[in-house]
Design a protein that fits this description.
This protein has 152 residues and is of the alpha+beta class. The protein contains seven helices and four strands, in the order H-E-E-H-H-E-H-E-H-H-H.
């Protein structure tokens, strides 16, 4: 199998869609009370450059309202530690990253039409579903833990 070139800062390497569901789940963050994936992580999964992914979205921007895709603020990047911003002179992100919600990822399937994109999209949607099911199945445990922390 041929290894794909991986972008700097990605969490893992993939080989022709050879990645595990837990690896995808590790790329899903909660920002603004929504489960999202960074554009650069999606690009790695799809096997394209981040620039190419965002250009495809820009050409179809009417498919991506603000609740499907939004740009992170510098504060969100620093607070969440998803993206490392170096404050030293000459070391900064040129552009703050975009993140895609579950609906945004679903919409990508209509924009990126390669076989790889189709396979990756199915796996990502399954990861979102698995996370949602986990949260729903364990909601009572999380509630009890929160109550315990408040009483503490």
């Amino acid at each position: 199998m041929e290894k794909k070139e991986i972008q700097k800062g990605s969490k893992f390497e993939i080989t022709n869609c050879d990645f595990k569901p837990k690896q995808i789940e590790s790329l899903i963050y909660v920002i603004r009370n929504q489960h999202v994936i960074l554009d650069r992580d999606l690009a790695v999964l799809y096997g394209v450059e981040t620039r190419v992914l965002n250009q495809a979205v820009k050409r179809n921007i009417e498919r991506f309202p603000e609740d499907f895709r939004f740009r992170l603020t510098k504060e969100e990047c620093l607070k969440s530690q998803i993206v490392t911003l170096k404050e030293a002179q000459g070391h900064h992100l040129k552009y703050l990253p975009f993140v895609f919600t579950e609906n945004g990822v679903a919409m990508l399937s209509g924009v990126l039409k390669t076989q790889t994109a189709i396979e990756v999209n199915i796996r990502i949607m399954r990861a979102f579903t698995a996370m949602r099911n986990f949260l729903m199945n364990n909601a009572s445990i999380f509630q009890r833990f929160n109550v315990w922390n408040v009483l503490k």
